[in-house]
Structure formats: C-alpha cells, structure tokens
Amino acid sequence: MKNTSQIDRLKQIVETLRSENGCPWDKAQTHASLKLGCIEEAAEVIGGINILEETGDAENLKEELGDLLLQVMFHSVIAEEEGLFTFEDVAKTVADKMERRHPHVFTDVKFETEEELHAAWAEIKRKEKEGKEWHADYLPGAFKEAHELIDRAQA
Fold this sequence. Notes:
The protein is mainly α. The chain is 72% helix and 0% strand.
C-alpha cells in the first residue's frame, strides 16, 4: 500500500474486512444493520465538537470524524458490492453539489447582498430537488426510527 492515499487505504481495509477471509461481523453488515452506528458516530462527532469548544483539544473530534468517515466508506463499499455506486461517486456527488451551490465562489457569478446569495442558494437547491420532493417525505420516519434505535441502544 505504499504511496496510497489514506482514503484508498481506508477503502482497502474495509474491502479486506468484508472479503472471504475477512471479519465475520464486518462481512455480515448491511446498510440497515449499520443505521445505529451512523447515528452513534454522528452523535460522537457532536461530542467531539463540544470537547473542542470547551477544552481546545481537537483529538477526540479528529477520531470521531474518522469513525463517521468509516461509516460512509462502509456504506459505499457495500453499495459498490451491490453494483449501486462507489465512494468516488459519493465524493463526486457532494463535490459537484458544493460547486453548484456556490457559483459566487466557483464561477463569475456575483451577488450584491447576502440575501441575494441565500436566495440563489435556495433556488439552486430547489432545482436540484425538482421531481424528488417526495424524498423529504421519508425524513419524519427516519427521525422517528433514529430515536427508536437510540432508545433501544440505551435500554
């Protein structure tokens, strides 16, 4: 793995864990079985932010962001195994979105006021979601499920 980026290294590790000779627990994981892990890791990132704000110590935040990235990589590797998408696709999707939503940074577009900037951002987001408005219908159920998973984990 010499001269390999750390992202590539992480992907190779997850692929190895899920391989024939890998870890039985890691091989058995699915998108659904990893839901609680995503919630827990996101909450631990928030804890890391709180620690940083209170103490100035960034080590916990760095570790917890890594754990959250592991969740993203895990889901991406599973999706790749299923022929759905890759980690590169995930990274490209979010990079494209950031460039699209910030034309004032990545193109010659200029806004006179912050209000214009926010209105443009909202319009860009609205256009992105056009025809997919129904996706938002899943959010209340997802929040409810997240709370239920947390309650079960704490019981």
